[in-house]
Amino acid sequence: MKVLGAFGSKTKNSQLSSYLLDEKTVIDAGNLIQSLGNDFLKLDNLLLTHAHFDHIVDLPTAIDTFYARLEKPLNIFATQEVINILKENIFNNKIWPDFSNIPLMNHSANTIIFHALEYFKEYSIGNFRLQPYPNFHTFGSCGYVINEALVFTSDTSLCYHTWNFLNQNKNLKQLIIEVSFPSSFNHLAVLSKHLTPTLLQNELEYLQRDDVKIYINHIKYEYIDAIIDELKAIGLYKRVALLDDNSEIEIG
Ligand SMILES: [Zn+2]
Ligand SMILES: [Zn+2]
């Protein structure tokens, strides 16, 4: 997995959520254009975790930018709730054309094809096995269990599914989980269904193993120093690795 964007806010030094599994399959569209360039044309599959803007922002523009050169449709996988949100609010012929009804230039297929995912079903998508599960962040949002090796929470609230997966299946050895705000923002984090260092620490009480490699993502970049200080203060800093743009993880 190559991290194209590891952060919860876009700044000069931080890019929004995108995780390239291989050249054909990517999770979330926070940073596809700058990071991939023409390699965007190789993509077959985009999996979305939810419809928040920081996870979809590059999708409409990338489709438009590369339209004339696209030789195959882009398959977009998400829950039906998220697909409906995209159709009603982005690809509605008001904000942006409905590319799911516009054929490719030299192809009878439409430019984007939506595929609805159901929670807890296992799917083969590209070269990967993916199982979406509810992460209690927004209506229809999901995390993914990837290749029965890595649990990817995406933006997540307190979520017992994450810990149940890891406690019940010892093949799962990697976890990417978010910490968006410092703990002084716990109130805001709970309201916006995110985690902070102390909320993560409380959640980790449910993990009955110490052999899981834990990666942190989705830090709001303006708080990165405060979050690192807090992780050190509560003794979590050595237990986790912070993801950065361009980080690479061997899944499995
Ligand atoms: Zn987000
Ligand atoms: Zn979100």
Give your account of this protein's structure.
- With 252 residues, the chain is of the alpha/beta class.
- The protein has a single domain (2-242), classed as Ribonuclease Z/Hydroxyacylglutathione hydrolase-like (Metallo-beta-lactamase, Chain A, 4-Layer Sandwich), CATH 3.60.15.
- It contains 8 helices and 13 strands.
- It has helices at 33-36, 53-56, 58-66, 80-89, 160-168, 186-191, 197-204, 224-233, and strands at residues 2-5, 18-22, 25-27, 45-47, 74-79, 112-117, 123-125, 128-134, 142-146, 150-152, 174-178, 213-217, 240-242.
- Strands 7-8-9-10-11-12-13 form a 7-stranded mixed beta sheet, with helices on one face. Strands 1-2-3-4-5-6 form a 6-stranded mixed beta sheet.
- The longest helix is centred in the middle third of the chain and has 10 residues, at 80-89.
- It is globular, with a radius of gyration of 18 Å.
- The model has no long low-confidence stretch (mean pLDDT 98).
- One zinc ion (ZN) binds next to loops.
